[in-house]
Amino acid sequence: MESLYFTSTAQARAYMEQHTDRGIVLFAGVEMVEELSAVAGPHVVLSSTAGEYTSKGFQEGVISGFTYPIDQVEVVEVESPAILSVHELQAAYTRVRNNKNAFMFILYDGLSGQEESVMTTLFFADNDFKVVGGSAGDYVQFKETAIYIGKRRVAGAALFFNYNKRTQVLKENIYYTTGQRLLVTDADPLTRVVHSFNNRPAATEYAAVLGIQEHELERAFMNNPLGKVIKGQTYITSPMKVNPDRSITFYAQVVPNTFLDVLQPSKLQESFQETLDSLAFRPSFVLSVHCILRSLKFKSENTWKLLDNALLGVCSNQAGFISYGEQLQDKHFNQTMVLIAFE
Question: Start and end of every FIST domain (predicted)?
Answer without folding.
Answer: 19-201
